[in-house]
Amino acid sequence: MINRGFHGLCLDLNAELIAEHLRREASRSRAIEFRAENFFALGERFDLIVAFEVLEHYQQDLDCLSKWLELLQPGGTLIFSVPAHMRQWTRNDTRAGHARRYEKKELLEKLKACGLQIEHFWCYGFPVLNLTYPLSVGLSRPVNAETQVRDSGDARMTDFEKTARSGNRLFPGFSGWLLREQLWFPWLQSQRPFLDSDLGTGYLVKCSPKRT
Q1: Which domain does 13 fall in, by range?
Q2: How many distinct structural domains can be found in the chain?
Q3: What are phi and psi of 123, to 5 degrees?
Q4: Per the domain annotation, does 3 fall within a domain?
Q5: What SS3 state is found at 2?
């Protein structure tokens, strides 16, 4: 994408993750800007917004969807993912400060209420991630209550500190090696026949502002 002249902005509340991305990527290209910032503070508008595993951290998730819609250029695209099915709730959801795992009907209704038009709606994870999800839970680092993250939180979230610290893993070097895309890619392809089912661990949605 960078070779084709695109540029972008990468946001995360976790300052450690942003610093890690800066170390890895900033020397390669200046086309991507990295900030440890809340997207509610943004005033720019974008052709494409990608938000993986973000919405579930917000009690007022309609506010979050409405903000993404506000940040989109006319004709822009929003791609996001959320965890699926409350029956699959684990201590990892609690540790990460999740407000909920989504059911398909609930998510479809909220997208419609916010004026977002769905282009693709997939349920990913079955059968591979359904089996390996406990491994991911075990590798997640517990939140340290004494860690100072930021001075100001966001009242729309369930727990700002947990959200800002989510994404950290125990043994990050080993976790990065074990969970690398090249290792899992052949297995993940087995999920493709089930994307239109409702059997997986998460939802992946591509949508855009509703045309008037």
Answers
A1: 1-37
A2: 2
A3: -110, 110
A4: yes
A5: helix
DSSP letter for each residue of 73-120: EEEEEEEEEEEB-GGG--HHHHHHT-S--B-HHHHHHHHHHTTEEEEE
pTM of the model: 0.81
- Enter the tokens of residue 170: 């125990």
CA distances from 106 to 2, 52, 61, 112 (A): 36, 18, 11, 10
Residues 109, 115, 119, 121: is their CA dihedral positive or negative? negative
Question: Average pLDDT in the 183-202 region?
Answer: 87
Q: What is the pLDDT of residues 44-101, one digit of tens each?
A: 999 999 999 999 999 999 999 999 999 999 999 999 999 999 999 988 898 888 999 9
Outline where 121-166 has alpha helix (H): 128-139, 160-165
Residue 168: both structure tokens together: 């950290």
pLDDT at residue 36 tops 70: yes
